């Protein structure tokens, strides 16, 4: 009677880990989970215009653990100041209470504050960076104060309509969901190269509408009849 | 607009190590994952640019030592995590910020919604930021986070992990991930880690490293973060005439 014990096999099995060149590649995404509030949003992260506490949730942890500070005051950017707000809904239409939104946008002249936007035909605004981050509040509402972006070139000689790049994070969201916010009645919405790549019946999910109080409202539906269009980048 | 303007160079698409949006074993994904396919869009300046002045946004101390943010020393195993931020062709990503948050040694978050009955540590917050140097290197000191139970299924425990968030150079390079530890048997039964197919899952497992371990002070772990790189395939100018 013989028993084979494959000790050699076990010992030679490679122990793959982060440092192993044989599996080198993009680090996989993982969810932010439910407890990101003391690590990611900062006071003023959702206020791209002035200085305030918008965006943070210091109510969710003790004050001595608030190790992240507010944005520095940069002065007032050019352009039309707008407020954006909305909610993130799950498949059952329930607002998600542990979601986080980020925005990235051009300034009023249509220029990104980035070394990779090297154009000389649109000015930088020293008071505008264009990146914002907001946790939703206790009612599941996110809010930003920013300026209405100008138009930015698209592929070829096209011109994009005013828009914001939007990222959605949260518990149960394994990978950032990337979408865009356009403005109802925005200049060039009908010819925007990205909006035109979206089936017409779903374009409305990317359009913010102005409320009676002047705020722009943009809800995000993760799933269901009104599912927001998300992009592969 | 100048007619001679060239379209921006795209970043790579997701490689095959990315998790899908829907992973039924991770229950929260069921109602929170899109069912429509993602729509691929052409790269525009919107996706190929990103905030490089994050230091004007997130002011405050850089948390190089998460064990030194309070009056006393936190409980637990002190560790030094170091590595590089690279793109998917192995090129360094300098001057980019890593945001870090984690549970304490007992697996408890300071967050008020964390109801796990393990002790808080008054000397540990578990949040910080570090910035990569010119070679893409970073290093920070912290406490090894403990495992914690969660409500996903019966007897569910998350392996110890450190949450990491990176902006990278562009909107397209945004990454949020988790770093795991090599001796942790919970990884292979964790629905969140298992959302990533093998062998890419092992990219999230750090390596114990005796060279960066400081004698009588802290254990060293290595963890490189790999972001999407620009797809520098030349434009197909040769074919334009066909
Ligand atoms: Fe966690």
Automatic annotation (TrEMBL), chain A:
Comp. bias regions, Basic and acidic residues: 7-18
InterPro entries on file: Intradiol_dOase_C (IPR000627), Intradiol_dOase_core (IPR015889), Intradiol_RC_Dioxygenase (IPR050770), Protocat_dOase_a (IPR012786)
Per its record, how is this protein called by name? Protocatechuate 3,4-dioxygenase alpha subunit
Ranges for the region named Disordered are 1-24
Is Manganese among the key words of this record? no
Q: Which Pfam families match?
A: Dioxygenase_C
Organism listed in the record: Sphingomonas aurantiaca
Read off the NCBIfam families from this record: protocat_alph
Q: Which residues form the Intradiol ring-cleavage dioxygenases domain?
A: 84-112
In its keyword annotation, does this UniProt entry include Oxidoreductase?
yes
The organism's taxonomic lineage, starting at the top = Bacteria, Pseudomonadati, Pseudomonadota, Alphaproteobacteria, Sphingomonadales
**Keywords recorded for this protein, A-Z:** Dioxygenase, Oxidoreductase
Q: Its family?
A: Belongs to the intradiol ring-cleavage dioxygenase family.
Output one GO MF annotation. protocatechuate 3,4-dioxygenase activity
From TrEMBL, chain B:
Annotated InterPro entries: Intradiol_dOase_C, Intradiol_dOase_core, Intradiol_RC_Dioxygenase, PCDO_beta_N, Protocat_dOase_b
| Family, as annotated | Belongs to the intradiol ring-cleavage dioxygenase family.
Q: Name one GO biological process term.
A: 3,4-dihydroxybenzoate catabolic process
Biased composition range(s): Basic and acidic residues: 1-16
Domain annotation Intradiol ring-cleavage dioxygenases: ranges = 81-109
Question: Can you say what this protein is called?
Answer: Protocatechuate 3,4-dioxygenase beta subunit
Q: Which UniProt keywords apply?
A: Dioxygenase, Oxidoreductase
Coiled-coil blocks: none
Name the domain of life.
Bacteria
Looking at the record, which segments are called Disordered? 1-32
Taxonomic classification, please?
Bacteria, Pseudomonadati, Pseudomonadota, Alphaproteobacteria, Sphingomonadales
Stored PANTHER family: DIOXYGENASE, PUTATIVE (AFU_ORTHOLOGUE AFUA_2G02910)-RELATED, INTRADIOL RING-CLEAVAGE DIOXYGENASES DOMAIN-CONTAINING PROTEIN
Which GO MF terms does the UniProt record name? ferric iron binding; protocatechuate 3,4-dioxygenase activity
């Amino acid at each position: 009677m013989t028993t084979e014990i494959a000790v050699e096999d076990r010992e030679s099995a490679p122990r793959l880990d982060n440092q192993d060149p044989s599996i080198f590649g993009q680090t996989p995404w993982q969810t932010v989970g439910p407890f990101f509030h003391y690590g990611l949003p900062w006071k003023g992260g959702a206020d791209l215009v002035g200085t305030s506490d918008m965006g943070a949730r210091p109510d969710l942890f003790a004050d001595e653990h608030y190790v992240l500070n507010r944005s520095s005051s940069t002065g007032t950017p050019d352009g039309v100041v707008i407020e954006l707000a909305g909610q993130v809904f799950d498949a059952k239409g329930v607002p998600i209470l542990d979601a986080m939104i980020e925005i990235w946008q051009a300034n009023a002249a249509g220029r990104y504050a980035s070394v990779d936007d090297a154009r000389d035909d649109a000015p930088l605004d020293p008071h505008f960076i264009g990146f914002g981050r907001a946790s939703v509040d206790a009612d599941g509402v996110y809010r930003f104060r920013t300026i209405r972006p100008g138009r930015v070139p698209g592929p070829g000689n096209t011109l994009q309509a005013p828009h914001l790049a939007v990222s959605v994070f949260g518990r149960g969201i394994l990978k950032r969901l990337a979408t865009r916010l356009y403005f109802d009645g925005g200049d060039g919405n009908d010819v925007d190269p990205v909006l035109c790549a979206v089936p017409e019946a779903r374009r409305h999910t990317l359009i913010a509408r102005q409320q009676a109080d002047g705020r722009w409202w943009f809800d995000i539906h993760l799933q269901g009849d009104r599912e927001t269009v998300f992009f592969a980048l | 607009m100048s007619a001679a303007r060239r379209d921006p160079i795209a970043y790579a698409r997701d490689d095959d190590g990315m998790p899908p949006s829907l992973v039924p074993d991770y229950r929260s994904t069921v109602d929170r994952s899109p069912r429509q396919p993602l729509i691929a869009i052409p790269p525009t300046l919107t996706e190929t640019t990103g905030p490089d002045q994050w230091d004007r946004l997130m002011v405050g101390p850089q948390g190089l030592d998460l064990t030194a943010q309070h009056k006393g020393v936190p409980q637990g195993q002190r560790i030094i995590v170091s590595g590089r931020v690279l793109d998917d062709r192995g090129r360094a990503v300098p001057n980019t910020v890593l945001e870090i948050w984690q549970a304490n040694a007992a697996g408890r978050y300071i967050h008020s919604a964390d109801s796990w009955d393990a002790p808080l540590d008054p000397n540990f917050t578990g949040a910080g930021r570090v910035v990569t140097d010119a070679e893409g290197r970073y290093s920070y000191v912290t406490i090894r986070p403990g495992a914690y139970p969660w409500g996903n299924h019966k007897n569910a425990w998350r392996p110890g992990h450190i949450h990491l968030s990176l902006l990278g150079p562009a909107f397209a390079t945004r990454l949020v991930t988790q770093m795991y530890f090599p001796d942790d048997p919970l990884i292979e039964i964790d629905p969140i880690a298992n959302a990533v197919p093998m062998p890419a899952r092992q990219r999230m497992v750090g390596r114990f490293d005796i060279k960066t371990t400081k004698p009588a002070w802290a254990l060293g772990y290595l963890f490189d973060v790999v972001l999407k790189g620009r797809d520098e395939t030349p434009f197909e100018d040769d074919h334009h005439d066909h």
